[in-house]
Amino acid sequence: MALTFTQLTPVFAGEASPIDLRQVRDRETLEAIRAGMDTYAVLVFRDQRFSDQDQLEFAERFDGMLHARTSSAVLTTNRLGNEALADISNVDRFGNIRAEDDRQRAASVANRLWHTDASFVDPPGRYSMLSARVIPPVRADTEFADMRAAYDELDPETRARIEGLQVHHSIAYSRHVLGFEFSDEEKEKLKGAVHPLVRTIPGSGRRALYLASHAQEVIGMPLPEGRLLLHDLIEHATRPHLTYRHIWRPYDFVIWDNRCTMHRARPFDDRTHRRELRRTTSLDLPLPVTA
Ligand code: OGA
Ligand code: MN
After folding, report:
1. Which of 11, 46, 50, 233 is most exposed, with minimal Cβ within 10 Å?
2. Would you state the pLDDT for residue 79?
3. Are 37 and 43 in contact, with CB atoms under 8 Å apart?
4. What's the DSSP call for residue 22?
5. Is the CB of residue 111 below 6 angstroms from any atom belonging to ligand 1?
């Protein structure tokens, strides 16, 4: 049966009709999902019973090369044994819930700031694919914001003002904002990357704001003025009517387009409840020509 999508908000985000992505290999269905991403920017697939290997294989079938540097990986090695499988969880390598003062926990709670994955490296992340394995009995949602709609709603003066601007993104900056300190050696490895503030998404032709908690400095602008501009744009882009809040169920699989959305984790009692997800993110390289 053909894959269809039901839109989840008046602006963006779609839920896919039942499908088992482990079985999806044909070009037609993969293209239908890519087209869905260009329309909705966030797609929800229910009941995807992926093993880690299944998830890695699907991610590569869907979008080619995977990103291995989407978190502050300089801090620690991945307990899952593969840096392309990001450990989005509050548990340590022994399976225990991380202590409040655990350094890795302190780094990962920064996911609660609005961001887009791996904007602090070049190439950044294109599609992130998050698989829910253990979901707490309390709400622990993820919110998304549509940065195409945010661009569309800018006034002409602001559009003119931001045209052509470049922004320096750094994960050391977004962590520093929350009081997290990196050693000089770590900072050396986390120099960040520069990206345009406005991007055009090839598949849809739509323009989008490219913002994130990692956005540290507008190149060529005095630091305070640039930060205020970024602050105002993030405020504009995350007004409730431009957001979708995902309420997780076990085995949900959510794909988002990092080029034209931001997302953030919402707080929950993470000292009591386990929450374990696995993320694969593709590299934002020029799109492969599909045969
Ligand atoms: C991520 C992320 C948010 C969450 O996986 O990149 O930001 O709610 N996750 O876990
Ligand atoms: Mn993220």
Report:
1. 46
2. 86
3. yes
4. G
5. yes
pLDDT at 274: 96
Contact 147/271 with Cβ under 8 angstroms? no
Name every residue whose Cβ is closer than 8 Å to that of residue 256 and which is 6 or more positions away in sequence. Answer: 41, 42, 43, 127, 128, 130, 144, 263
The pLDDT of residue 72: 62
**Mean pLDDT value across residues 52-69:** 96
pLDDT category, 85, cuts 50, 70, 90?
Answer: very high
- For tokens 């006034």, the residue is 155
Rounded to the nearest angstrom, the distance between the alpha carbon of 279 and the centre of ligand 1 is 8
The candidate with the shortest Cα–Cα distance to 267, out of 180, 139, 102, is: 139
Q: Quick check: CB of 281 below 6 Å from ligand 1? A: no
CA of 101 to the centre of ligand 1 (A): 20
Residue 136 pLDDT exceeds 90: yes
Residue nearest to atom 2 of ligand 1 (CA): 111
Write the pLDDT tens digit of every residue in 238-289.
999 999 999 999 999 999 999 999 999 999 999 999 999 999 999 999 765 5
Q: Would you give the distance in Å from CA 247 to the centre of its chain?
A: 16
Pocket test for ligand 1, best of 126, 129, 142, 281 (most atoms within 8 A of CB): 142
Q: How far is the CA of 157 from the centre of ligand 1 (A)?
A: 33
Q: How far apart are CA 279 and CA 152, in angstroms?
A: 29
Q: Is 88 in the pocket of ligand 1 (CB under 6 A)?
A: yes
CATH architecture type of domain 5-283: 4-Layer Sandwich (3.60)
Residues 6+ apart with CB under 8 A from 207: 148, 151, 152, 198, 199, 200, 201
